[in-house]
Write a structure and sequence with these properties.
This protein is an alpha/beta fold. The chain has 19 helices and 16 strands. Helices cover 51% and strands 14% of the residues. The longest helix is centred in the middle third of the chain and has 55 residues. The protein starts with a helix and ends with a helix.
Length: 532
């Protein structure tokens, strides 16, 4: 009977602790903000264990020594647990992954480098918080030497409370991270939407008719025709030599039409095999051919409501031409391997540098498709027929190279402009752009593009066309001077390496050596540099 009476207070005390633990868990279960949750948690534990100070720390990623900490005191005059003590306690708990009970910090052999600071941190109890097999933080309870060491019941209480509160804290942390991620995602979406709108506005501005370089009469007529064709949804065929800017005219048509807010999709019909081209244009179903591992939406479907630009339409296979004709006539597409057709609403803009009439005669291009494509036809003049536009184009490409190459002080000499004007430009505007960018890279630090910075082929051709009425000796002198200057420049850039210089000039090594001897160029690197 006496033993039974002795056990009743112990059982009653345990029941009281369990009720207290349950009360704490109920308090923190509805809280979603981690700092508030930690505040309530440590305040309740300090009171329940009669501690002088309590610390709850959450380990933050990516560094395990990063901590989010809440400290609570029974007495506001208490000082914070020193960083030296808290960091060593944390390290021990993480290393051993177990609870830590210190009855006398000054006499504990495990922490010889620590002291209780005059008995303020004499008794310590630490317990790790583990959630999903990961230590996410720890409790630290502190008593001064005025109180007895922590008892086994306190260890048992924390052993019950720590894992349950750890799971609640882990869920709260996860919820906060998801909330922050959603906020960042919303910000990113808004920013992306704003950037897309800005980009669309810039695209519309870039391809506005007033921004198209058209000083020459032929280009003025082109722009006038394009402005009228923008209001229609009928197909447009753009013809002209390679490099005349057919893609830019196609974009101008789209971005000045009512379809400007919808997609503008480009595909080169000459770069794909028959099956791959049809797959790109119309899509395919899984397993319809080797390599078709999933369903794919075609470009006509992606461009629904907008425009499709079929570049180099003259290179499209005859079977693909039939499918393109069906789209123009009825708006119907059928992905490869599909059993049903789909309907799309697109405007077809096509371009070619071929003579389609000759291809029709040769039976390589369908006549019915040709008549569908050329409802409106735009013929772009080659650059040699629009000389009035050359200075404006050169200035445009110089400004473009300034930004691309980060060379603000970039200019061109009048002599170079004369050479450019005399060249025939078989590659048209595209070749001119490449030449200006090449010269911008080759010119010196002063940013002035000179004759020596031009391609040798352009210099030779322009020099030959310089004085057609001049006598042979005068022309020969001009060409020889330019050629010698180019050789000196190439040798200087290759630091006197004849083989490298010959490759840069497009000559054989023997051919370059012959010209070096002919022009009496001394192979002295320093002298070559001074001549340059």
């Amino acid at each position: 009977m006496q033993e039974s009476h002795m056990m009743e207070p112990v059982a009653g005390e345990k029941l009281g602790y369990l009720i207290s633990i349950n009360g704490i868990i109920e308090k923190i279960c509805g809280i979603r903000e981690t700092n508030h949750l930690m505040d309530i948690l440590i305040s309740e534990i300090v009171a329940l264990t009669d501690s002088d100070q309590g610390v709850v720390s959450l380990i933050t990623k990516p560094a395990d020594d990063g901590l989010s900490t809440v400290v609570r005191f029974r007495d506001e005059k208490c000082e914070n647990l020193s960083h030296q003590i808290s960091s060593q306690l944390l390290g021990w708990v993480l290393k051993n992954n177990s609870a830590l009970k210190i009855d006398d910090l000054d006499g504990d052999d495990r922490f010889l480098g620590l002291d209780s600071r005059g008995g303020r941190y004499k008794r310590i109890l630490c317990y790790p918080m583990v959630a999903r097999s990961e230590t996410i933080g720890l409790f630290i309870l502190v008593r001064s030497d005025n109180k007895q060491p922590f008892e086994e019941k306190h260890c048992q209480m924390l052993g019950i409370l720590a894992p349950q509160s750890a799971q609640i804290l882990a869920n709260a942390k996860l919820l906060e991270e998801l909330t922050r991620a959603n906020e960042l995602l919303d910000i990113s979406r808004r920013k992306l939407k704003e950037e897309n709108l800005q980009l669309k506005n810039e695209m519309v501005a870039d391809f506005a008719f007033e921004n198209i370089i058209c000083k020459s009469p032929k280009m003025k007529r082109v722009v006038s025709v394009v402005s009228r064709y923008c209001t229609s949804d009928s197909p447009v065929l753009i013809t002209g030599e390679t490099g005349t800017g057919k893609d830019l005219i196609a974009k101008a048509i789209h971005y000045n039409s009512d379809r400007r807010e919808k997609p503008f999709v480009i595909i080169n019909c000459g770069f794909k095999t028959e099956t791959l081209l049809e797959s790109e244009l119309f899509g395919h179903t899984r397993g319809s051919f080797t390599g078709a591992i999933r369903n794919k939406i075609g470009l006509f479907k992606e461009a629904d409501g907008g425009s499709v630009f079929l570049d180099e339409i003259g290179d499209a296979p005859l079977s693909t031409q039939v499918a393109i004709l069906r789209v123009i006539q009825s708006g119907e597409i059928r992905p490869i391997g599909a059993t049903k057709t789909e309907t799309v609403n697109v405007r077809v803009i096509s371009a070619t540098n071929r003579n389609l009439s000759e291809q029709i005669a040769a039976k390589t291009f369908r006549e019915d498709l040709f008549y569908r494509l050329n409802t409106f036809i735009i013929e772009l003049p080659p650059l040699r027929e629009r000389q009035e536009d050359l200075p404006m184009l050169v200035n445009h490409f110089i400004n473009k190279s300034k930004v691309k190459l980060n060379k603000p002080p970039l200019s061109i000499t009048p002599e170079v402009m004369d050479f450019l004007a005399r060249f025939n430009w078989p590659g048209n505007v595209r070749e001119l752009e490449s030449e200006i960018e090449r010269a911008a890279i080759a010119c010196g630090t002063d940013g002035i593009i000179g004759i020596r910075d031009l391609s040798p082929g352009i210099v030779r051709a322009a020099s030959a066309a310089a004085q057609p009425a001049a006598c042979g000796s005068e022309l020969k002198t001009v060409v020889e001077k330019v050629e010698r200057d180019l050789i000196v420049k190439a040798l200087a850039e290759s630091r006197g390496n004849v083989l490298a210089a010959s490759r840069a000039l497009g000559l054989t090594r023997k051919g370059l050596v012959n010209k070096i001897n002919r022009y009496k160029i001394v192979l002295d690197y320093k002298r070559i540099v001074s001549e340059k």
